[in-house]
Amino acid sequence: MKQDSTRNTAYTVDCEDYVHVVKFNPFDSGDACSLIAYGGDNYVVVGTCRFQEEDAEVEGMQYKTLRMFHHGIRVDAIAWSPETRLDALPPQIRFCTAASDKKLRLFTSDLQDKNEFKTFDGHSDYINDLVFAPKEGQEVASVSDDHTCRVWDLEGNEKAHFVLRSPGMSVCWHPEEAFKLMVAEKNGTIRFYDLITQQAILSLECEQTPLMSADWCLKNTLKIGAVAGSDWLIWDITCSSYPQDKRPVHLDRARLFRWSRVNENLFATTGYPGKTTSQLLVHHLGHPQPILTGTAAVGSGLTWHRTLPLCAVGGDHKIFFWVTEM
């Protein structure tokens, strides 16, 4: 494995719109292709991807748009539902968005005539992140600049409401910890809430601000990662409420942190869009330097493929894909 390889993107897809957010479906939809959704100023587009890394008959990558959903307003975040199935008859696509009007929108489509959406009202400021309950998909959790984390049913009724001490930046719901919610706040605190008692049960501290993004490792439930200031930070929750490891990465400020879905030591971070480019860094905990450095013109969003060490970032009418080693 090269210590520090600067790489151009492995693949790019041309998009209809400026891409503010991009999200691989983290759940198995029953199809060989991977679902991906991206959000722009007016639309959400859902498509499928297949890569040569998983299918020798594919040259490079195949991308196909399944449907474009009119959104009418800038998309700030997207979450996939585990109820999305491509192997059902008819198929079902279900996802939820957060938009710049402080509302959540739940979209359900059979990719034919049935295209429904419901609006969830309640947040009084920008929504920074949202996630579906990972097992049944019957609830959605969201965090906002209004200092709350809210849990909704699919009719848009508020089922739980946690008051935070600063803006909520990230919310995670782990498939192996279905009754706990991880909420990361801008003030550098990450808290775990018990959804049965609706009480905080554990907290972690960055000891630096602003915390912009945090993630719960899929492959190891004891590992939490975040970016705060210009550093990445990693916790082992059995050891301490303070980070086990941290390192400065982005010169200006770090923006997003995402664990790979295939390896508990692999993660990616992005910097703030600079005047011309954003930096993507892929890190491996066994290596002192990033194992991959990528740049994207004004990139935004960051997402890992469900089964490959491959991540994507959105940009100006494009999605950029990078492949790394395990």
TrEMBL record:
GO terms for cellular component: kinetochore; nuclear pore outer ring. One of its GO terms (biological process) is protein transport. InterPro entries: NUP37, WD40/YVTN_repeat-like_dom_sf, WD40_repeat_CS, WD40_repeat_dom_sf, WD40_rpt. It is found in: Chromosome, Centromere, Kinetochore; Nucleus, Nuclear pore complex. Its main location: nucleus. Pfam families: WD40. Keywords: Cell cycle, Cell division, Centromere, Chromosome, Chromosome partition, Kinetochore, Mitosis, mRNA transport, Nuclear pore complex, Nucleus, Protein transport, Repeat, Translocation, Transport, WD repeat. Component of the Nup107-160 subcomplex of the nuclear pore complex (NPC). The Nup107-160 subcomplex includes NUP160, NUP133, NUP107, NUP98, NUP85, NUP43, NUP37, SEH1 and SEC13. Component of the Nup107-160 subcomplex of the nuclear pore complex (NPC). The Nup107-160 subcomplex is required for the assembly of a functional NPC. The Nup107-160 subcomplex is also required for normal kinetochore microtubule attachment, mitotic progression and chromosome segregation. This is Nucleoporin Nup37.
